[in-house]
Sequence to fold (277 residues):
Amino acid sequence: MQRSPQHTLNNGAAIDVLGYGVYKVPADDCEDLVSTAIDAGYRTIDTAALYANEAGVGRAVRAAEARGIARNDVFVTSKVWNTDQGYDATLAAFDASMAELGLEYLDLYLIHWPCPERNLFIPSYKALETLYHEGRVRAIGVSNFEEPHLQQLLAATDVVPAVNQVELHPWLPQTRLRQVHAELGIATQAWSPLGRGAILTEPALVSLADGLGCSVAQLVLRWHVQSGHLAIPKASSAGRIQENLDIFSFTLSEDQMKAIDALDSDRRSGSHPNQVN
Ligand code: NDP
Fold:
């Protein structure tokens, strides 16, 4: 069984560098795939109210507990959806997520998108602070926040986000935002770390992976780890779930890292945060 190294968040909580994401995992398959991931060695699972599969994540975590994997050895993230922003609505959304998950506490709760036109992320985050102070969630953070959103948030709230989960892969390395995170003590977590699969046919990556004798997915995930951010790849088969975690027995050289860095082309697989409301 593989095991990801851990990263200590700004409040002392530990999260695996490599986790498993379940966006677009159908509700009916979610428990089995998350159980497969946990058995493969994953201990960090990323879901969201939007994904409509929190119940399957919760069942898999509880089943793992019954097999002897302690609840506090597993790290579960969920997110408040855009239409539930606002102080009271966020508290209610959290309760709804926890009812779906069937867990006593959550490890990380994120604001899914800043939704600047709604202009509610500050009261939403204040609700996250309340949940954090009540001990119902071990860490709080944001997702898809750009630098101006972070600055606005920090000026109006007390708890520095532990994580900003953003689209990040070799085509979109988020260099400036990562600098801001480093200055503020916020961990960068990469969503769509494999560019939703599209990056896996990039010729420069195919050639580097061939030379190393690893898959392109493993090469890209290794680049994430050596770049110092967290990543949560999604995969739908036991083979890929296993393959994506099997990246801790090789190292990319400085030249290989630079060759991947050079693919920066400001190319997104998802929406720009200012366009989601
Ligand atoms: P990923 O970059 O993780 O790519 C997933 C795609 O890559 C799937 O098509 C998958 O295929 C394929 N794939 C995975 N592993 C391999 C492999 N070893 N070889 C070949 N193909 C592979 O994209 P996601 O958009 O799913 O992002 C990952 C996670 O990030 C999500 O599940 C979610 O948890 C989070 N996320 C968060 C967002 C946010 O706004 N906060 C937005 C989007 C995602 P298959 O499934 O068929 O195996």
User: Anything to note?
Assistant: The CA atoms of residues 188 and 271 lie 18 Å apart. The pocket of NDP is lined by residues 21-23, 46, 112, 143-144, 165, 191-197, 200, 215, 217, 232-237, 240, 243-244, 270 (CB under 6 Å).
